[in-house]
Specification:
123 residues, mainly alpha, globular
Length: 123
């Protein structure tokens, strides 16, 4: 079972991602604004991560400095927030299957901005 765990998690993640795309498309077709849906999606994710970090990583967490906070913000805003808003707008005009395929470009965009802002190197 040890070698099969990455495959199982990969299949579960892709299934969850496809379900989230279909849910997003249904909400947008139902009349919800794209920016509002993405805001709530990001808010729920933030609350979940903050709570899980507070519960499981309380003793081993390192302090968050202003510089580290700025780097996280500088990478997250163009790399994920902008991409998710563009994804929501594009989902209004395309199908859910095309949007699901395009979502795989987010890590590439994040790396591009990390190299552009000199937070990472391409070596």
């Amino acid at each position: 079972m040890g070698l099969k765990n990455p495959y199982v998690f990969s299949i579960l993640f892709q299934t969850f991602d496809a379900g989230m795309t279909l849910l997003t498309k249904a909400a947008l077709n139902g009349g919800m604004k794209s920016f509002i849906f993405i805001f709530y999606r990001q808010l729920i994710g933030t609350v979940f991560l903050l709570l899980s970090t507070a519960i499981f990583e309380r003793r081993s967490a390192t302090p968050l400095t202003i510089l580290v906070f700025f780097k996280i913000f500088a990478l997250a805003f163009p790399g994920l927030t902008l991409a998710m808003n563009l994804y929501g707008i594009a989902l209004l005009y395309t199908s859910a299957s095309l949007a699901s395929a395009i979502m795989n470009c987010i890590p590439v965009m994040t790396f591009f901005f990390a190299v552009l802002l000199r937070f990472s190197s391409s070596q």
